[in-house]
Design goal:
The structure holds 2 protein chains of 2 kinds. Chain A is α+β, with helices and mostly antiparallel strands. Chain A has 2 helices and 4 strands; from the N terminus they run H-E-H-E-E-E. The mean pLDDT of chain A is about 85. Chain B is α+β, with helices and mostly antiparallel strands. Chain B is about 25% helix and about 40% strand. In chain B, strand 4 and strand 5 form a beta hairpin. The chains are: A alpha+beta, B alpha+beta.
């Protein structure tokens, strides 16, 4: 078990694991990151229709009002939506949708027309 | 003297195997998610232009398994033609989600049809202004939302449909 070939094999296995592990972690992270983007986009679509759902300088938990299977089924994902006045204009509202995936998070900001409901 | 068992190689081999397995699992999950994204984008290309959801069209009825999008027809210059409407129908039946587009007689859009197979379940939820689509592909479940508005926030582009 201590021939030169064995040592090379052992080293190759170790290297393949060391090099493969970050790739695996990146694959898993990419999956949850893309899920987060889709979940945030879904929430943005809903808020376009209902900008009054979020108030200025306050936060609500995502999903807002309606169930969202993407956020429901992947327990690692959790979200909050922060509302604020955009550019000091009462007609515009900025919603920052922050989706957390445990160790990291991403946020998507949308500018909503707060004047009309539809 | 008792010979020491070499544990390093089996341990590393096991770890490598486990990481490969995890990689394969997430690769498949990525594929399922990609399918959802593709379906969602296709539906959004109709829903983004829809002015409302219709209750009945041909043999289709709006419900949890089907949705009928009403779009204003366009001419070859992508100008809207009032009082003439195209319809896009999304129907879930027998593990497949089909997306059929029916243009009006004078519309510049063309008839098209897509069928997405291998879907465990698809359900439409209309909340009046926002249409939700829940899709179950294998063990994965996703929700997409489409904002349906008569105001043209997104102008029609002929190349979309």
């Amino acid at each position: 078990m201590n021939t030169r070939a064995d040592k090379v094999l052992r080293l190759a296995l170790l290297l393949s694991f060391i090099l493969g592990a970050p790739g695996l972690l990146m694959t898993i992270d990419a999956f949850y990151k893309r899920l987060s983007v889709e979940a945030a986009a879904g929430q943005a679509e809903y808020l376009k229709h209902m900008p009054f759902f979020i108030e200025n300088n306050s936060a609500v938990s995502a999903p807002v009002y309606h169930k969202n299977l993407t956020l429901e089924n992947y327990g690692i994902l959790s979200g909050k939506i922060y509302g604020s006045l955009y550019d000091s204009r009462p007609s515009l509202k900025e919603a920052r949708i922050a989706i957390n995936r445990g160790y990291a998070g991403l946020s998507v900001s949308v500018i909503l027309d707060a004047r009309v409901r539809r | 003297m008792k010979k020491k068992k070499p544990l390093l190689i089996p341990a590393i081999a096991l770890l490598s195997l486990f990481s490969q397995l995890a990689f394969a699992v997430f690769f498949v999950r990525h594929q399922d998610f990609d399918r959802f994204v593709f379906i969602s984008r296709e539906i959004n290309s109709f829903a983004g232009l829809a002015i409302e959801l219709e209750k009945n069209y041909l043999d289709y009825t709006k419900g949890p398994s089907s949705s009928i999008f009403l779009l204003e027809s366009i001419d070859i210059n992508s100008v809207l033609i009032k009082e003439h409407h195209d319809r896009a129908v999304a129907v879930f039946k027998d593990s497949s989600l089909s997306l059929n587009f029916y243009p009006s007689d004078i519309s510049a859009r063309r008839r098209s049809s897509f069928v997405f197979t291998g879907i465990n379940n698809a359900e439409f939820r209309d909340s009046g202004g926002v249409l939700f689509l829940d899709i179950h592909i294998r063990k994965e479940s996703f929700t997409a939302a489409y904002h349906i508005t008569p105001l043209y926030t997104r102008m029609p582009r002929a190349r979309r449909i």
